[in-house]
Amino acid sequence: MYVAVKGGEKAIRNAHSWLAEERRGQPDLPELQVDQIREQLAIGVARIMAEGSLYDPDLAALAMKQSRGDMVEAIFLIRAYRTTLPRFGYSEPIDSALMLCKRRISATFKDIPGGQILGPTFDYTHRLLDFNLMAKGDMEPAQKTQSDINKSPHILQLLNKDGLIQDEPRHNAEPADLTREPLAFPASRALRLQALARGDEGFLLGLGYSTQRGYARNHAFVGELRVGIVAVEFFVPELGFAIDIGEIEITECETVNQFQGSKTEPPQFTRGYGLVFGQQERKAISIALVDRALRWREMGEDDVGAPAQDEEFVLSHCDNIQATGFVEHIKLPHYVDFQSELELIRQIRRDAFVAEANQ
Amino acid sequence: MTLNADPNSSADTDTSYNFAYLDEQTKRMIRRALLKAVAIPGYQVPFAAREMPMPYGWGTGGVQVTAACLTPDDCLKVIDQGADDTTNAVSIRSFFEKTAAVKTTENTAEASIIQTRHRIPETPLNENQILVYQVPIPEPLRFLEPRETETRKMHALAEYGLMHVKLYEDISQHGHIATAYAYPVEVENRYIMDPSPIPKFDNPKMNNSPALQLFGAGREQRIYAIPPYCQVQSLDFDDYPFNRLRAPQSCEVCGSENSYLDEMIVDDAGGRMFVCSDTDYCSRRQAGQDAEPEVGQ
């Protein structure tokens, strides 16, 4: 006799303790410490902070440990945690021109005021496995430099002095908050950039890449890519002025894109923009490419039907927590729906056989 | 820094989160959306769904609606596929046991709030009950028109021709309307609404129901509602009227001839058996406590 599928509660409990054991791995090896993850897997930690929308390297490292290195799962842990946090208010806009840059490059100018700083980058490493890392090895201290915080203007601002690049309109309006209001279309550029900053790196990389391969090509150069520390200020009404409440590391990318002009306006270059927590150059560049593609309407360009131009498509699908939940939910039971389809298809087939027999 | 405790870490009620997990501000925002939804039956109200500690697509919309409705005196029942003991139902029930310490039950008649995925209980509901549906895709027109900007316009203008054409094409191709679950309904002669992926067998139970029916779609950030005693009509044509669909067998455990059945493969020769999908209904009938309700309305 059939025994109903019972005991879900016990199975879940046992599954969780099995998972905890698998996470720990071989017990005779030392357990991974959260501060080791924070220090030695910093780029992964940055991704968790960015897509989790919470700047806290310790919690991001904890999430990576708890999720066994599953990045989307770690991002999910951070998102679920952050929604429970009280909101005290919004910070003042950060000023990325006043960045303490550890990396600052321009692909459009050979030399720039304040200088190019290569900084800690994989760019020119030969991708050869370093077997020394399998053993413990001491390192020589590195020769380092950092930008002069007061002498690192945005490069594209310099172009702008000659009117060669389109000026971005300044807004003092409070930007909408994606995490507090339901997303509605059309979305403002500020809201789009907000969504892209927490969007999935892989998804945005693919979309950015597609623009380079002709799906809404916009001929981008990296005008400037900078990575470094900026101060975060918070306006305190009781004091009547803004105070520093901390600093964050960010990556900012401005692209110079194909110029446009008309009979009344002389041609100008245009821009794409990407900003993301931590050192995440791939993501910042991808955001800038997608941002520029999404601006087709405002630039008076054609909608060529490319995915990267489609605001609803991009914004509705770039969030990996939404995506992973819905994609993975099809492993939940669907007996009831499947049963209804089974009955329907049996009915249709029955009718078809009867009709055939009657002919 | 103080960290809130992990809600999964203890079997007891967790006091490090607010009652029913969500903060009061968020609950107020959801209640406002619910009130609007009740005022405009079948209309999808946007709301700022929060990330929940369970994945999108696993009932986050339903969980938020339940959290916003729960009071300490409530008695909660959670079902998935009609059953109280499926893993996701177990998980959601224990979430509220931990965060709200409310009484829970498997008995449909005893519950004041029932959160469900994919079924409406067989036992008729009453005026003191709220049925909360988990909704994956709230937009009934979504698979005909993927753009939200377009579908909102279509609802605003009650421009539902596309849906009728789809149903007509089904009939001309298959001889039947080829939708077996999430079968679209019209609410109070105005909005076309997705009833969530319940089998169309359950659709008639929505009509003129004494219970309040609330629908939560977390990922898609929508809430909608059917107030008590509302007219809910499954879409059909005069010459192709709506029909309920269930396996023609009777339940092999309780013998019910009217309940919705799950089909199971019981041996490697493809042998089948049919059992009630509503586990509470089935076990009460086995105990001789429930008579067979009338089919239909």
Give an overview of the whole structure:
The complex is a heterodimer of chains A (359) and B (297). Chain A is built from twelve helices and four strands. The two termini of chain A are 43 Å apart. Chain A is of the alpha+beta class and 359 residues long. Chain B is α/β, with parallel strands linked by helices and 297 residues long. At the A-B interface, helix 1, helix 5, helix 11 and helix 12 of A face helix 3 and strand 11 of B.
Q: Quick gist of this model?
A:
Chain A has 359 residues and is α+β, with helices and mostly antiparallel strands.
Greatest chain-chain contact: A-B, 53 and 68 residues
Shape descriptor of chain B reads globular
Radius of gyration of chain B: 20 Å
Distance between the termini of chain B: 58 Å
Give me the number of helical elements of chain B. Answer: 6
Q: Which strand-content bin applies to the residues of chain B? A: 15-25%
Distance between the termini of chain A: 43 Å
Mean pLDDT of chain B equals 91
Low-confidence stretches of chain A: 1-5
Category by helix and strand content of chain B: alpha/beta
